[in-house]
């Protein structure tokens, strides 16, 4: 397993410390294990009743997993980024493609049907639809599910990318399997002195919605489509674990290893803050296999303040040993844990000898002590009065 050879700072980090030999070994071992697991008969005799059909070796994907020390993104990003690979991922001629464009769709349909468009790519594109027709025809959930199942790859004009979650529904964005891949179809502004020319201010010029569309030439559109369907997609989210599909179990190990090296280098250099100094591990795994490490760092920190210099005692988690500039959490009635035992005993003795003091307010509210003799006398007098009243009332009744 490849590891960093020395403890270095971010400025001194190696460009790509992943060992190609280790990548090739991991690719060979993982492909052999997946082929054995797929082709070998089930020894236990149990079947997975929830699986629709058995997964073949050609359909089994292999993922590169990157773990970092800190999050590489602060929010979920619906628009995936692309990494161009030496060996495209979607080279299957039978996979179908759906292209979602900006208005109008007729222009892009004519581009696909033109002679300049490659025949092998035209047969794979089964639908071209703009955002307006998409909202009108696929508003119902059942229609969205049907569209999802009819196509293998979805490409979208980057101008309408942010409008797709509402138009397509949660079916497309619940996972990254068929999430629309953005492509650039809008024509680029001409360069002036090495910079893009600014859009002229003033009244907008009306153009024919079919003949004069703000789109790239056909050759550039074909190049964008081929780049998107063969690239590795990177979906960033607020996590320390990022997975990118790099190949399939039916590939040759050398072919898979080249894609892994390219993804590992571009993924760190383009998307990871502080580059390789923020990388913890890089793994290679299948859908149901253990992760095989191909790179593991020796640096367990990320910030310079977390590094302990030679001869310096590390910060202790024990009570009483606090970081510099940090106060202990000791209240007014809480005894300090750093105090000496003799001082604590002396303080407790003084508290016992100190007489109890009552405030004037508490003394005023204090109840008088009870007197049982006086209470018995009051009860006897009341009974005597009641007896006299009762005899007087009886005498008055008898006289009548």
Automatic annotation (TrEMBL):
Residues 344-356, 371-383 have a biased composition (Basic and acidic residues). The keyword Ribosomal protein applies. GO terms for cellular component: ribosome. The keyword 4Fe-4S does not apply. Keywords: Ribonucleoprotein, Ribosomal protein. It comes from the Eukaryota. Residues 311-400 are annotated as: Disordered. Coiled coil: none annotated. Residues 320-335, 384-393 have a biased composition (Basic residues). This is Ribosomal protein L1p/L10e family-domain-containing protein. It comes from Rhypophila decipiens.
């Amino acid at each position: 397993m490849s590891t960093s050879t020395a403890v270095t700072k971010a400025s001194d980090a190696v460009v790509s410390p992943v060992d190609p030999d280790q990548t090739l070994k991991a690719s060979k071992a993982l492909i052999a294990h997946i082929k054995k697991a797929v082709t070998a008969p089930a020894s236990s005799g149990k079947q997975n009743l929830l699986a629709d059909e058995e997964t073949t070796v050609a359909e089994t994907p292999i993922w590169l997993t990157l773990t970092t020390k800190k999050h590489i993104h602060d929010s979920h990003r619906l628009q995936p980024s692309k990494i161009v690979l030496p060996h495209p991922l979607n080279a299957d001629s039978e996979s179908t493609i759906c292209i979602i464009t900006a208005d109008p769709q007729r222009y892009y349909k004519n581009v696909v049907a033109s002679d300049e468009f490659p025949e092998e790519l035209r047969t794979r594109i089964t639908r071209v639809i703009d955002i307006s027709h998409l909202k009108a025809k696929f508003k119902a959930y059942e229609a969205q599910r049907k569209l999802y199942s009819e196509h293998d790859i979805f490409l979208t004009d980057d101008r309408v990318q942010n409008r797709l979650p509402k138009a397509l529904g949660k079916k497309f964005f619940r996972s990254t399997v068929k999430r629309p891949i953005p492509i650039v179809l809008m024509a680029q502004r001409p360069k002036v002195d090495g910079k893009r020319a600014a859009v002229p201010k003033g009244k907008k010029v009306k153009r024919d919605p079919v003949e004069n569309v703000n789109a790239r030439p056909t050759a550039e559109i074909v190049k964008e489509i081929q780049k998107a369907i063969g690239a590795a997609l990177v979906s960033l989210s607020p996590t320390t674990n990022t997975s990118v599909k790099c190949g399939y179990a039916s590939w040759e190990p050398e072919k898979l290893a080249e894609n892994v090296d390219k993804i590992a280098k571009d993924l760190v250099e383009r998307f990871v803050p502080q580059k390789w100094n923020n990388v913890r591990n890089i793994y290679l795994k299948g859908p149901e296999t253990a992760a095989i490490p191909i790179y593991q760092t020796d640096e367990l920190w990320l910030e310079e303040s977390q590094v302990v210099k030679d001869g310096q005692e590390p910060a202790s988690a024990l009570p009483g040993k606090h970081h510099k500039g940090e106060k202990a959490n000791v209240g007014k009635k809480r005894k300090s844990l750093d105090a000496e035992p003799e001082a604590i005993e002396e303080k407790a003795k003084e508290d016992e000898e100190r007489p109890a003091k009552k405030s004037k307010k508490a003394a005023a509210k204090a109840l008088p002590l009870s007197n049982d003799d006086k209470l018995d006398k009051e009860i006897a007098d009341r009974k005597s009065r009641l007896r006299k009243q009762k005899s007087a009332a009886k005498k008055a009744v008898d006289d009548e």
